[in-house]
Specification:
With 485 residues, this protein is of the alpha+beta class. Among the domains are: 162-269, Beta Barrel (Thrombin, subunit H), CATH 2.40.10.10; 275-368, PDZ domain (Pdz3 Domain, Roll); 385-482, PDZ domain (Pdz3 Domain), CATH 2.30.42. It is 20% helix and 35% strand. Strands 21, 22, 23, 24, 25, 26 and 27 form a 7-stranded antiparallel sheet that branches. Strand 2 and strand 3 (107-110) form a beta hairpin. The chain is elongated, with a radius of gyration of 27 Å.
Length: 485
């Protein structure tokens, strides 16, 4: 089938959709001529937007000096300190991306992975003028970077409100895919709030709240603009989901409200000043909602509250469920992260919380994330061990603490083995987990000894999910397991 035939069928289908939706103004059935006129008007809208927007999107060429060492890649990282590793040869690695002109005096918004580690940055305008750029600042947690060129009177991109976008809206992606400058593609918003786990951050504070689109995005588009039909930037194109390295229908953009806040902080303060609560979060799925006695999955569960943090000072507790932030309903952990990250330290937010069977509101004054966050330990338990539901568990004695290298004085019981294929394995329990509480609906039992654990399980309703409160390293987790009949 030829490309022309595919295009004609797409236009015919789109015209049919417009007719079915009542987009045409004629009271009777639309004629073919009227349908084509509507398509021509839509075409004029797209070309008008493209004309206005393409001068505000630039191509970014980078060079980074790296060292190559073939031997280094063959030796595991943990063992490299035992070898005197050659430093490797220095070589230049070229890079390509896109950027958005945000001010007439030359501030350009792009991705951290495009410009964040570059030694040389060149910006190429739509009219082929070239400028050397300097890195103003970068934020790896959102994959946002700001660069600056020495220029005046530049056309800057109008900025929209990414909080108001909806699934199904028409959008255009503008950038330099594969070094094809000023390329414009179109599609719709396919989904919102995507968390892809593509931003590498060991602290767990990476912020991913991507807009998904089927507008074609390819390597080189990163840092370019996602545009609505008002010609406004609503996102910064960032990633694709692909097994081939090329576009297969899934592209992702950082919401402009988040990216703009990061940019403003970098320009004004030289760094990102990001609001901080001090909590670990978990999504409320169907099994967790059942275990907590909810009428359905909603809200975001606080897995644990770190001590001496704004959340702790405001009286938030483990097992609270956040229903809304400043009146905006929340149902995903990354949604909570994004909303808080767009605030500054010392700002106050209103959190609607479900605690047990009550709904309450907490006013929380945000802080700034410290360099390290610790956990809190408590008292010691007695000896004993048993095996239940595929879990081998043991009391935490001084001998167990020493053998498992546990922090002294921890509450709970230790998971020493997880039977392969068991309910516990499917619930993702791991050796070394510490279980310190069990909950099902209104039933809630602290677990300090193996006997506590046995007694708690005996009281659980069969055939329903129960939530097990687990400490794993420095994190608190909620693992759900259906209690067998």
């Amino acid at each position: 089938m030829s490309i022309q035939t595919i295009r004609f069928r797409q236009l015919t289908l789109f015209a049919g959709l417009l007719i079915a939706a009542g987009a045409f103004t004629t009271p009777a059935f639309a004629t073919e001529d009227q349908a084509m006129e509507q398509l021509r008007n839509l075409n004029k809208a797209f070309t008008s937007i493209a004309r206005r927007v393409t001068p505000t999107v630039v191509t970014i060429s980078t060079r980074e000096t790296v060292r190559s060492n073939a031997l280094r890649g063959q030796i595991p990282e943990d063992y490299r300190r035992f070898f005197r590793m050659p430093r490797g040869e220095r070589r230049e690695r070229p890079g390509l991306g896109s950027g958005i002109i945000m001010s007439a005096d030359g501030y350009v918004l792009t991705n951290h992975h495009v410009a964040g580690s570059a030694d040389e940055i060149t910006v190429i305008l739509n009219d082929n003028q070239e400028f050397e750029a300097r890195l103003v600042g970068t934020d790896s947690l959102t994959d946002v970077a700001v660069i600056k060129i020495d220029a005046e009177g530049l056309a800057s991109a109008p900025v929209g409100n990414s909080d108001e976008i909806q699934i199904g809206e028409w959008v255009m992606a503008v950038g330099a895919p594969l070094d094809l400058r000023s390329t414009v593609t179109s599609g719709i918003i396919s989904a919102l709030g995507r968390n892809l786990n593509i931003i590498s951050d060991r602290s767990g504070f990476a912020i991913e709240d991507f807009i998904q689109t089927d507008a074609a995005i390819n390597p080189g588009n990163s840092g370019g603009a996602l545009i609505n039909l008002d010609g406004e930037v609503i996102g910064v194109n960032t990633a694709i989901a692909s097994g081939t390295g090329g576009f297969v229908g899934y592209g992702f953009a950082i919401p402009i409200n988040l990216a703009r806040k990061v940019m403003d902080d970098i320009i004004t303060h030289g760094r990102v000043r990001r609001g901080f609560l001090g909590i670990n979060l978990r999504r409320v799925d169907a099994s967790l909602a059942d275990a907590f006695g909810l009428d359905g999955p909603r809200g975001v569960l606080i897995a644990n509250v770190f001590s001496d943090t704004p959340a702790d000072a405001a009286g938030l507790k483990d097992e609270d469920i956040i229903l809304s932030i400043d009146g905006t309903a929340v149902n995903r952990p990354n949604q909570v992260q994004s909303l808080i990250a767009r605030k500054h330290p010392d700002e106050t937010v209103a959190l609607e919380i479900r605690r047990k069977n009550r709904t309450i509101t907490h006013q929380v004054k945000l802080g700034e994330k410290p360099a390290q966050i610790g956990d809190v330990a408590s008292t010691r338990t007695q000896a004993g061990q048993t095996e239940l539901h595929g879990l081998s568990v043991s009391n935490i004695t001084p001998e167990v603490e020493s053998r498992w290298r546990l922090e002294a004085g921890m509450d709970g019981i230790l998971v020493t083995e997880v039977a392969q294929g068991s309910r516990a394995a499917r619930a993702r329990f791991q050796r070394g987990d510490i279980i310190f509480k069990v909950r099902q609906g209104n039933l809630e039992r602290e677990v300090r000894t193996v006997e506590d654990f046995k007694a708690s399980l005996a009281k659980l309703e069969k055939g329903r999910n129960a939530a097990f409160f687990v400490r794993r390293g420095t994190y608190h987790l909620f693992l759900t397991m259906k209690i067998s009949e």
